[in-house]
Amino acid sequence: MSLRRICVHIDDTATSAARLRFSGLLARHHDASLAGIYVPHRPGAVHSGQRESSGDHYRTEGRAQTALHAAEHLFQEVCAEHDIAGDWHAPFGAPTTILSTFAKSTDLCIVGQPDSPGGVAALGVDGIGDIVVSAGVPVLGLPHNVTLPQEIRRIVIAWNGSREARRAIGDAWQLLGRAQDIFVVGINRSPAGDDPSLTDIVHLLEKHGLRAKPVSIRQDTEASDGVQLLAVTEEYEADLLVMGAYGHGPTRELVFGGATRTVLKHMSTPVLLSH
C-alpha cells in the first residue's frame, strides 16, 4: 500500500518544528498529503483547588491562542515549501484519542519521542502505545535532540519471528522499497543456532527486489534486548528502526515489552511501530 496520507502530531514541545519539517519532506517524497493535528491547551478554571482569577485565565488563554496560531502558520509554511496538500485540525480533547481517530483515515501517524522536553503536550510511552493499538496504522516516533535524516536510506528491522514483526515489515513496505540497505536483526537466544525464520524473511525481501541482509546477534546477558537493538541501529548508521508492538486486553492498552520501552525512551533514530 502506498503512503498517500500522513498525519503528524504538532505540539508545544521544543522539537515539534523539526518533526513537522521531517513529516513535510516525507510527504513530498511519497507524493502524500499531510494532516496536521494540534490539540490546544484549554486553560483550567480551577487550579490547586482555587478558581483562577479572570486575569490569570485570560493570560493563559492568550498564550494558548498565540501557540496555536504559530503552529498553524508553521504548518502552512511547510506545506507550501514542499508543495504538498495539507489540512489543519485543532480540536479540543485527549491527544491520544484525537490522534487515534484521525490516524484511522491515514497511512502513517508521526509522533514525537515520549516525554519530549519543552512542553506539556508530549505523549508518554503508554500514550503512543494506545495510538499504535487503537489506530490500526503504523506509528513513526521521531527522536528529540538529534538531526533527523533527510531521506530514509538505511533501515534496521527487529525480527523475532512473531506476527507483530511480520506485520511491521508489511506496514513499512513503502519505506523499505526506497531503502538502499536493509538489515534484518535477530537476537539469537538458542544454543542450537540461528532462528531459520531470519533467513526465510530475508529471502522473501530479496524476492521482492529489496537489498536485505540477515544480522544475527547473540543475546547479551549484560545488556537488554532494547539496548542491543539501539547499539545495532547505531552501528549500521540506520535512518530507521522497524519493530513490532504487542497489545492485549479489553481496553486495548498496549503492553510494551522492556525492549520497546527502552528503544522509545532512548532512541536516536526514527522508530516505526506496528501492531
From TrEMBL:
It holds the Pfam family Usp. InterPro entries: Universal_stress_UspA (IPR006015), UspA (IPR006016). Residues 152-273 form the UspA domain. CDD domains: USP-like. Belongs to the universal stress protein A family. This is Universal stress protein. It comes from Pandoraea cepalis.
